[in-house]
Amino acid sequence: MVSSLQQWRKPALILAILTVLGVLLTHWFAWPLTWPLGLRLPVDVEVYWQGAREFWLADDLYDIRYDTTFDNLPFTYPPFGALVFTPLWWIHDLFGLLVTERVFALITLLTTYAVAVFLLRLAGVRDRVWEFVAFAALLVSAPVYFTLNIGQINVMLMALTLFDVALPRSTRHSGVLKYVPLGVLTGIAAAIKLTPLVFGLYFLILWVVTKSPRGLFGMIGGFLGASGFAIIFRPSISIQYFTDVLFTAERIGDLHFARNVSIRAVLERLPELGSAASIVWLVAVALVIIAVAVAAYRILRTDLSAHNRLLAVSLVSLVALLCSPVSWYHHWVWLGPLIVALWLTQHRWLALWGAFAVTFGSFHNFLPSENNVELTWPWWMHVLAAHYLIFSAVVTAVFSCGKMPQKTELSH
Known about the structure:
By secondary structure, the protein is an all-alpha fold.
């Protein structure tokens, strides 16, 4: 595999350098330009540092909206998330907003590079040039690109789960993670932002396959430990979040917004469904969970290699992305690892489709989305807006009903 890539090494490196430079130029030197390109609109990092300040200095973390360069936005993360963001508050008070944004962007870039290296190592490739090419490919994918430009934490949370779940056994047992029980990093990620709780399904299936519950227990322990750490400092805020704020999805934005890429969003854009939309959504959620669970079980039962664990956990991530009432376009960073897993398990056409979807096929970013116009879209716009969902449905169907991934000589 490596030798066949050598002839493309130099042109790929040149293209990767130009790609990374282009991304950095639009992010580091351009203030908000024409949306939907959204070149450098780091509103979330502005909410992060303000949320951290409120966590320590006030009791209204979830009761107020925070000023950003785009709009007044709420803080929607668990209390432990606010605690984790505390260094951003310190940096802001010492050096100002611009430096805070730059530091957070640098962390995102370094994490993206680490994920790229990790995925290449799973493919058996150890080459600095191809690592940089993989980094550029991830960076230019729409979910990662917009995660960087709005200052989101998605890539970092994904990295925690990837390193927790898909490390080859030899690497995990010899590195620093040998001291961290399986599941703990995923639990910590879920304490920062609740969506990684979906990986409890992965660990539950792993328990069924291996007869060992340690991954699930590790995740529960990591989540409770991190959440409990926040409770020590601000118990009232923690109680408010887990008894009230958690159940108010509308705080995050309009469900029908074009860049909300979820099943619920598709249904909300069809006003003719009326109250039936909720019933259809619940049925769809149940079907997705069942289909993904069957697919992940079949994959892990076939082979517990690092490739298959990567594929299974990437499929499980689709449960949160598809079933959550709100899955913003930048939440879909898990499509990157899914594409790599599809390629490594010999599902090349699906991998190529996924690569198209996260680049030129991210149609939801370019559809009309002003003044509730989504409610009047023609049928073909609804189809384009659901491209990620259609791709996810096909992939899930293939692994829940079709041929299992092949073992490869590079499996660990």
